[in-house]
Structures are given as C-alpha cells and as structure tokens.
Amino acid sequence: MEIKVGKRDIIWSYLGSFFQYCTSLIILPLILSNILEEELGLWYSFASIGTLVTYLDFGFSTTLVRNITYAWSGANKIRKQGFDTTDVKKDVNVTFVKQILFTCRMVCLVVALIALMVMATAGTVYVAYISRGLMNKGGAMLAWGIYAVAMFLNIYYNYCANALRGIGLISQYQKILVVSRIAQIALSYLGIKIGYGLIALSAAYLVSGFMIRVFSKYYLDRAVKEVEEQCPKLANEKTPLRDKILGSVEIFKDIWFNAKRSGIISLCSYATNQSLTLICSAYLGVGETAAYGLSLQIVTAIMNVAGILMAAYQPKLINSMVLGKNDEYRKMFSMCMFVFSSVALGGITAFSLVSKELLTLLGSNTSLPIGMFCFMGLYMYLEHNHGQYTSYFTMRNEIIYLKAYVISSLCIVLGSWILAVCGMNIYVLMLVHFVVQICFNNWYWPHRAMKLMNTNVIKTAQEGAVETWGLLKKLLRI
Fold first, then answer.
1. Hey, which residues does 75 pair with through a beta bridge?
2. Cα(256)–Cα(262) distance, rounded to whole angstroms?
3. How remote is the C-alpha of 268 from its chain's centroid?
4. Cα–Cα distance, 56 to 108 (Å, whole number)
5. Which of 20, 174, 190, 343 has the most Cβ atoms closer than 10 angstroms to its Cβ?
6. Maximum CA pair distance of the chain?
7. pTM (two decimals)
8. So where does this one cross the membrane (predicted)?
9. CA 23, 20, 175 angle in degrees (round to 5)?
10. Nearest-angstrom CA–CA distance, 256 and 63
11. Mind listing the pLDDT tens digit for each residue in 1-57?
12. Contact, 449 vs 392, CB < 8 A?
C-alpha cells in the first residue's frame, strides 16, 4: 500500500511539532519569572535523566516505526538487515502488523518497568544529591516522584504513538500532540501561579503524556479495524496466546539485530548532547547549569522545528524506498534537507540577535550568554545535519555508523568529565564536543549518503530548493 503525505499532514505536522518541541519555550517566560535559578537547573536535570531512561528501549521506538511502515507497505517479513522489494505485496499484511504491535507492546512494558526501577533508585539518589542545598527539598523530591511515574507511562504506551506515524496517520498524531500540549501549558501555568513550582511542571507533564497515549491507542485500533473489515477472514481470526508469544519471539530476534544498534546509538546521542548537563550540575553547580540548559533548550527546539518536515515525510520516504522509487526518494530527501538547513541556520541567527532584549522583556532570572548560545548553535547544527543524513541508512535498515558514534561519544563524555574534574569552565567542555564531531561524523556521513543517492551538496541544494518551492505553492493553494 502506498503511503501519501498530503497538505493537511504537513500543516498539522508543523502545528503539532511546534507544540511538541516548543511547549517548554511557551511556558519558559512563566518559569523564568516565578522559579529560582537553582530550581530551573534542577528541572533541566530532571529532563536530562528522563531523556536518558527513554533510551533504555534500545532503539525499539525507531525500529517500530520503520518496520510498521514496511508491513503497512505490504512486506511479509522482517529482515535482520536491509530489505528486499520482492518481499512487498500489494495489500497490507494486517496479521503481521498486529504481531509486530504485540511484540513491541511487551518490549515496551519490560523497558518501562526497568526505567521506573532505575529512576526510583539511582535517579532518586542523584536528585537528592543535587537538591541538597534547596530550601524546599521535600517539594523537589515529590516533583521527581511524579516525573518518574510520567516517564513510566510514556515509555510503556510509546508504541501507540509511533505506530500511528508508521502507518501514515500523521495528521491524527499531530492533532493529539496539539491537544495534549495545550493541556500541559494550561496546567503548568495554573500550577505555577498558585505556587506549586516544580510539582506543577511534573504533574502537567504526566497528564499530557497520558492524553497522548490514550488518544493514540484509539486511532491506532480504529485504523487496524478498518483494514480488517476489508478482509472479513482476518477479522474473525483469533490467534492463541501461545502462538502470539512464539511469533513475537521470532520477530524480536529479527528486530533485535538492528534495534540493539539503534539503542546504542541513542545512548551515544544522549551522551553527546545531554550528558554535559549532568556533568555541569555535579561539578560546576546548578547555577551555571541553568545558563547552559537554557541555551541547550532553545537550540534543541530550533533544531527540532527544522527537522519537522523530515519527520513528517519519514513514512513516505521509507515507503518510496521499499517500492523502489529512488528518484522520488532523493527529491523528497533533498527538500527535507534544504528546509532543515534554512530553518536551523535562520533560527539560530534570528534568536541570537533578539535574545538579550527578549529575556529582559520576559523578566528572566537566568541570563543567556550570547557567546555560549552561538557556539552551541554551530556545533548542534552540524550534529543534527549529519544525523539527518544517517537517517538515510536507518531507513534502509542498515546501522553502519555504530562504531563511529560509540567512539565519538566516549571521547566527548570522558574528555568533558576529565576537564570538569580539572576545573575547566563550560566553554572548554563544549569545545570538546565540537572538535570530536567535526573530525569525522560531521562530514563523513553526509558525504557517504549523498554518494549512494547519486547526488552532491550542490545538487542537493538545487533540487531541494526546487522541491521546496513546489511544496510552498502547493500549500498556498489551500
């Protein structure tokens, strides 16, 4: 089955992704003017730990989207590595889709329980340590407890939201994000105004995540039922639990081959982009962590917004690749990369010009060093740029960049930690990130991906500009 990305999907992707990535920025003025700098640093530490535990799924989230798209496109089996267009049939293999979903549900439950255990033990010890100087330590620990429960639910039900994207129900998924994030903003605002601070932020995050999972499951079940109705025999089939489990074991073995690689790469990405927040909290104090965390939050939001189009087109890209439409794939990929670079570089430049005045207007208790922000913007752009190109290999079910990611992340973490112990400031630690990545990852993976797509930097930019203009004209005809 061919997956299509329409105008509504694109518009809702931008609207939904805006709320997904910018919710924290929307409530940021309220946080900056009502929460102390030390508490802000603690909240960023919550987020860093939460990001770490989500990586415990070892790549099953991204692997799920890819394999659900394969199955929805008509594939009848999962290959450990790569794919074969001869595996693809005309109709959706609903039984296969349901078996993949059952497998990932069981995996997500196990991962969620492990994550909860990690947060309840090591996470609690760490939070207790860094909050030892706060006046309201009890409130901070309660906020952490709520946050841990929220993370458990989010990890467990994550397969529903990812499956929606995998089968091409992009606008439905984005609508859910909009509603849930608006609820999070409203609850955060209300809770902070009545004086609950970090507790309000954690509770709002819990409610928002719960809404996403409930509505995602509703849309997913409805989509599967609609396909089943086209084949009454499938609707009446009841697979025994024993057969489900045995089938899940076989699927797990196939998925695990690349999922474990994706998981390790996810941990490497965390180590590369998030570990410095924890190192900064432990050695430089939560005050300096607030400035670094604020810069990271804004830069990450800009990069995420820049990558919205690529995320929206991912099911279609995979679908085109599986169906052997290589020229169509290259044009879409070039368009996504052109939009990514334009939005990322434009956003970093624009915010750097207005950041001082904007934070003053908002009455921020935390300053944003412009030098830190611009330097971070540079190396984070390069980081996300090569990450977009490695997605080409991921979509081909080929995780060939594992070794490079492991080596670079180890160098970054160990280098930053050693220099932090030696008393170096935050700028020196950031320089480690920049130097390590520019030596290999920043240039090699874009070069290799473009070579395999039979293109180059100039051709990608030209083709991307043409395709982007065509997309804009299409959207403006609404």
1. 88
2. 9
3. 14
4. 10
5. 174
6. 68
7. 0.69
8. 12-36, 42-60, 106-129, 141-161, 290-313, 333-354, 366-382, 402-420, 426-445
9. 120
10. 9
11. 556 666 777 777 778 777 776 777 677 777 777 777 677 777 777 777 776 666 666
12. yes
